Amino acid sequence: MTEDTPTPADFEIFLVAPPGLEALLCDEVREAGFADPQAVPGGVTIMGGWPEVWRANLQIRGASRVLARIGAFRAMHLAQLDKRARKFPWADILRPDVPLKVEVTCKASRIYHAGAAAQRIETALREELGVAISPEAEFKLKVRIDDDLCTISVDTSGESLHKRGHKEAVNKAPMRETLAALFLRQCGYDGTEPVVDPMCGSGTFVIEAAEIAAGLLPGRTRHFAFEQLASFDPAAWDRMRNPAARPHPALRFYGADRDAGAIKMSRANAERAGVTDLVQFATHAISDLMPPEGKPGLVIVNPPYGTRIGNKNLLYGLYAALGQTLLTRFGGWRVGLVTSEPSLAKATGLPFAPPSAPVPHGGLGVQLFQTKALR
Ligand SMILES: C[S@@+](CC[C@H](N)C(=O)[O-])C[C@H]1O[C@@H](n2cnc3c(N)ncnc32)[C@H](O)[C@@H]1O
């Protein structure tokens, strides 16, 4: 992949990151060949044009959405907002036949009423572009008025990017694919070692790891909002999203869970993702887990965690059993454990380094605890 050289037509592209993981996402974006990515609170910015927007949506595993900042103008009061919104070159980017909704936020600005500002922009869009405005529309225009500067972005992703498009079956408390990919990266996983998830649920870590090893692009089977923009070029997009297939690696990726229903889901998800030949799933409890033959790699696991005390007490035994199994059978393997509760991580008895800062997930803050290769 070559570095993208900015041109005068380039604009700012913002990749949304899970809070706290901006630097990790920035590393991924840099490695994917995007020029000069910058980690900022809430995400990563790059400069580019529409092909970079498509490629970021298609290729970046850790971003939850990609916004294109298509323009900005100053607006000190509503009449000025109305006038400038009417002059904005909407037709260069938006299609009159694709309904949209407008979301406005105001901060430290003379225009402070988001509803009134949205109404001015919606009227301009309706009357100048001829587009229908609907609160139910899937296509979203995001307007931020900050310090009297009105910045206009389009959400080019549509559905959140953790929806890869080939996963239908989800267990309770699934890990989001975007977060799973960033945690794998944080564990130093680069697609060249085996991965075991002994409590795999719907198989998120195992399938992500297999896709990375096989060079499969995360967005290869789904649709994106940018396909409905005036700037969309279907032929160029088809070429981008169907690169020459590369042979699957000899590595294998392993998932286990004591819940047979979860394993059925994992298998169905792996099949839809096209990685069936790379994965092995088995139904058994943690106490029956054995390391696969061959060189050691990474154990990554997201065991159950509770929010109630009674629930938590039961979990100490489970974490202790997990730790015991790994300490006695998984010499040479590294461990990454994701949990909301440091005392549960401690109950494993595993030699964890200080954990990463909490990342919001399912209403809790989860942390990644990591070991070096176990002895
Ligand atoms: C938080 S979920 C994992 C979610 C998974 N990362 C995903 O993305 O779908 C925890 C899983 O641990 C499994 N589990 C609980 N106790 C277990 C045990 N003793 N042995 C094996 N699996 C267990 C549960 O069935 C559940 O699927």
TrEMBL record:
GO MF terms held by the record: nucleic acid binding; rRNA (guanine-N2-)-methyltransferase activity; rRNA (guanine-N7-)-methyltransferase activity
Entry-linked Gene3D superfamilies: 3.30.2130.30, Vaccinia Virus protein VP39
Ribosomal RNA large subunit methyltransferase K/L-like methyltransferase domain sequence ranges: 164-348
Keywords assigned: Methyltransferase, Transferase
InterPro entries: DNA_methylase_N6_adenine_CS, RlmKL-like_Mtase, RlmKL-like_Mtase_CS, RlmL_1st, SAM-dependent_MTases_sf
Keyword Methyltransferase: yes
Pfam families: RlmL_1st, UPF0020
Residue span(s) of domain RlmL ferredoxin-like: 12-67
UniProt keyword Transferase present: yes
PANTHER family according to UniProt: RIBOSOMAL RNA LARGE SUBUNIT METHYLTRANSFERASE K/L, RIBOSOMAL RNA LARGE SUBUNIT METHYLTRANSFERASE K_L
Name listed for the protein in its UniProt record: Class I SAM-dependent RNA methyltransferase
